[in-house]
Amino acid sequence: MKFQISKEPINIQHVIDQVVQREAGAITTFIGTVREITHGKKTLYLVYEAYESMAVKKLEQIGKEIEERWKGADVAIVHRVGKLDITDVAVVIAVSTPHRADAYEANRYAIERIKEIVPIWKKEHWEDGQEWIGNQLETVAYPKGEPEAKHLDE
């Protein structure tokens, strides 16, 4: 599957292999990892959750947007959920296009759109506490640990 939510570690090479095409002169990858320091706080680990069925549909939507905007593009995206430790891979995006500039642009577009429209949220665990961080843009809080129904389409 080219677009998925995974509870297991992401096989980066498998994501890349899904976009290999004879017409492509470039494949770019984005590998998002869990960092240790966020907003000056030391993170111990994160827990990602998703509204999985909608998240997959939104990842597919992003793929279609890219294929329409960058002719000849092929896209695969996998986002992990569950407990992730520091340096664990949270998301992998692979984009192939006939020319490298398009591959770079399309890949950047994909990660920004994921943050905008895909219903994935996280709980940050720090040395001195924990907090559910809302949507990935951090513009809507999810204090109960998940979005209210009205926020799922944002």
Explained architecture:
By secondary structure, the protein is of the alpha+beta class. The chain is built from three helices and nine strands; from the N terminus they run E-H-E-E-E-H-E-E-E-H-E-E. The protein has helices at 12-17, 52-69, 100-117, and strands at 3-6, 26-33, 37-38, 41-50, 74-80, 82-85, 89-97, 120-126, 129-133. Strands 3, 4, 6, 8 and 9 form a five-stranded antiparallel beta sheet that branches. Strands 1-5-7-2 form a four-stranded mixed beta sheet. A hairpin with a 2-residue loop joins strand 3 (37-38) and strand 4. Helix 2 runs antiparallel to helix 3 (100-117). It is elongated. The mean pLDDT is 92.
Average predicted local confidence, pLDDT = 92
Proportion of residues in helical segments: 25-40%
Profile the largest sheet.
5 strands, antiparallel
How many β-strands, per DSSP?
9
**What's the order of the H and E elements?**
EHEEEHEEEHEE
Structural Rg = 16 Å
Task: Quickly count the helices.
Answer: 3
- What structural category characterises the helix and strand content? alpha+beta
